[in-house]
């Protein structure tokens, strides 16, 4: 980046994944945000993160005796949080809600500000209770606190901000406050909106239309989310129902998707939206000190023995699996890792789709698979997916393991110690997929559909494997059959023989995997892209 003074950026996110025990995250969006603010600290970038202080965080999801997932919640206390002494007030259902502002830089991150409504002054202390616990009024209340409360917190803390970055649409209501401030200073709504657009940038994350949150205008009005704007003005920003992504696109000077393919998909998806910003691609990245095993980094940099290092780390994973599940896997046999949110498009069970093909490998243990992943507490389809994986564990006790309560600890273990990292979403529905980056930099070879980040990194057969050819159709029956065939072809005709019969080639691929990803998909590159393409005006 150039040496000029960099703009100061307020980075709004509903979740931050900084550490397994600091339950401010649910999944990939939060992991990205956590890595982002650690990376910002590493390169001294003036990014000021703002989020909510969740009392219970996201679900702790366990498996019951029948093999079904169930959700548990606990009140967590974090004694390391610093009290900034600042409180701000927002209106929810026309009642003042006080938000206390905490701060922490405990995890090697830029100081993170967290708004908390769980204080005696509030009758509605539960707004910051559960992350993604609700969809309707409660979600809007959370978004008022994050967006409007977040802007007010910056003012009260007297941190001058040049750019407001909304990481996903959850923070879009922040713009109502930015517009309101300017109207109070005498600007018309039009001028205030235009001026606000000049200081806002927006990141969209979900390539599924239904995944983009909407709220009826009536409900927003009832919740006091208009924040002084009129119904007509709100409708012009986000439509009716008010779409948080469309609002983000219309409130920003520039937007981005989280991989090049995702940017294309998003531009197509939102083609009809008038007055929106352009969506460019800035591919996600990971904070390498958090996710890459130091022993592997040392071995790679000093010409050490990658295989011996991997074997040691794989042994630790196998012990971790035994401790958590009681299942003893075979360290000599191929171990596939697969952990992601249980959502249908991710197709966790694609590998089981033609049992006559895969069964012999699972029965012999020649292929072993370790799964993890949570379903959203209100998603019955997702819960069925988890139950099905648990059933597979019972069916193939030598070869299939499901680890309950997926979190950063499990994520780190699996992306370090597996041999293969499998990813088989329905293209183009995987926005980015940072777990594959963690794997690749640990010398764990990706075997993936050409979706999300993988088309940018994959040199098929050299640094990992592509499944299929990027085929797309909206006929899911056809797509699933096509990709199932492609998965078996790649896995059984290329991955398995290489693993068992050509170790030298495997190790060469591990080397190439690390070499081709460790710089390109590390936070420094990503932050530089955000500064050069989004934050610094051309
Ligand atoms: C890395 C990580 C993610 C994001 O990975 P995806 O590839 O997007 O699924 C989600 N959850 C946890 C716990 C992680 O460690």
UniProtKB/TrEMBL annotation:
Top-level taxon: Bacteria
UniProt keyword annotation of Transferase present: yes
Keywords: Carbohydrate metabolism, Glycosyltransferase, Pyridoxal phosphate, Transferase
GO BP: carbohydrate metabolic process
Lineage, opening ranks: Bacteria, Bacillati, Bacillota, Bacilli, Bacillales
InterPro entries reported in the protein's UniProt record: Agluc_phsphrylas, Glyco_trans_35, Glycogen/Maltodextrin_Phosph, Pyridoxal_P_attach_site
EC number: 2.4.1.1
Name of the protein described by the UniProt record: glycogen phosphorylase
Cofactor(s) annotated in UniProt: pyridoxal 5'-phosphate
Enzyme class: transferase
Reaction it catalyzes: [(1->4)-alpha-D-glucosyl](n) + phosphate = [(1->4)-alpha-D-glucosyl](n-1) + alpha-D-glucose 1-phosphate
Organism name: Paenibacillus anaericanus
Biological function: Phosphorylase is an important allosteric enzyme in carbohydrate metabolism. Enzymes from different sources differ in their regulatory mechanisms and in their natural substrates. However, all known phosphorylases share catalytic and structural properties.
SUPFAM superfamilies in alphabetical order: UDP-Glycosyltransferase/glycogen phosphorylase
PROSITE patterns (UniProt xref): PHOSPHORYLASE (PS00102)
Family assignment from sequence similarity: Belongs to the glycogen phosphorylase family.
Keyword Nucleotide-binding annotated: no
Entry's Gene Ontology molecular function annotations: glycogen phosphorylase activity; pyridoxal phosphate binding
């Amino acid at each position: 980046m150039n040496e000029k003074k960099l703009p100061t950026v307020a980075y709004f996110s509903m979740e931050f994944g900084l550490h397994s025990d600091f339950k401010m995250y649910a999944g990939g969006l939060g992991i990205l945000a956590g890595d982002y603010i650690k990376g910002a600290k590493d390169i001294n970038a003036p990014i000021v993160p703002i989020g909510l202080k969740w009392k219970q965080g996201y679900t702790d999801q366990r498996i019951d005796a029948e093999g079904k997932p169930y959700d548990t919640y606990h009140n967590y206390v974090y004694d390391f949080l610093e009290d900034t002494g600042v409180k701000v007030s927002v209106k929810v259902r026309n009642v003042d809600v006080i938000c206390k502002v905490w701060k922490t830089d405990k995890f090697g991150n830029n100081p993170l500000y967290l708004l908390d409504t769980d204080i005696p002054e509030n009758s509605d202390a539960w707004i910051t209770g559960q992350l993604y616990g609700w969809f309707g009024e409660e979600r809007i209340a959370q978004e008022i606190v994050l967006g409007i409360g977040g802007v007010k917190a910056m003012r009260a803390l007297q941190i001058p901000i040049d750019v407001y970055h909304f990481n996903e649409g959850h923070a879009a209501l922040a713009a109502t406050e930015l517009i309101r401030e300017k109207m109070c200073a005498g600007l018309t709504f039009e001028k205030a909106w235009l001026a606000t657009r000049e200081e806002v940038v927006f990141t969209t994350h979900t390539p599924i239309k239904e995944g983009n949150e909407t709220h009826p205008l009536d409900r927003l009005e009832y919740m006091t989310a208009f924040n002084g704007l009129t119904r007509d003005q709100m409708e012009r920003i986000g439509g009716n129902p008010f779409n948080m992504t469309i609002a983000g696109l219309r409130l920003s000077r520039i937007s981005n998707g989280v991989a090049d393919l995702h940017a294309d998909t998003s531009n197509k998806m939102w083609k009809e939206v008038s007055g929106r910003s352009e969506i460019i691609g800035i591919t996600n990245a990971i904070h390498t000190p958090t996710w890459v095993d130091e022993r592997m980094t040392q071995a790679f940099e000093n010409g050490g023995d990658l295989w011996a290092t991997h074997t040691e780390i794989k042994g630790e994973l196998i012990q971790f699996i035994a401790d958590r599940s009681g299942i003893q896997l075979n360290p000599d046999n191929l171990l596939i890792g697969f952990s992601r949110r249980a959502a249908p498009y991710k197709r966790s069970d694609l590998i089981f789709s033609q049992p006559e093909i895969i069964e012999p490998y699972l029965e012999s243990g020649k292929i072993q698979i370790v799964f993890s992943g949570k379903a959203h507490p209100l998603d019955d389809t997702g819960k069925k997916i988890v139950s099905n994986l648990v059933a597979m564990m019972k069916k193939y006790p030598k070869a299939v393991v499901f680890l309950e309560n997926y979190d950063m600890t499990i994520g780190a273990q699996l992306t370090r110690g597996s041999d293969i990292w499998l990813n088989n979403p329905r293209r183009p529905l995987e926005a980015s997929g940072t777990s594959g980056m963690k794997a690749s930099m640990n010398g764990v070879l990706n075997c993936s559909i050409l979706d999300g980040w993988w088309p940018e990194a994959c040199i098929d057969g050299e640094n990992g494997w592509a499944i299929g050819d990027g085929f797309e159709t909206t006929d899911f029956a056809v797509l699933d059959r096509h990709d199932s065939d492609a998965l078996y072809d790649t896995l059984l005709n290329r991955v398995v023989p290489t693993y068992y019969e050509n170790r030298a080639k495997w190790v060469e691929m591990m080397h190439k995997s690390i070499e081709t990803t460790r710089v390109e998909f590390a936070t420094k590159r990503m932050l530089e892209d955000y500064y050069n393409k989004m934050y610094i005006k051309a």
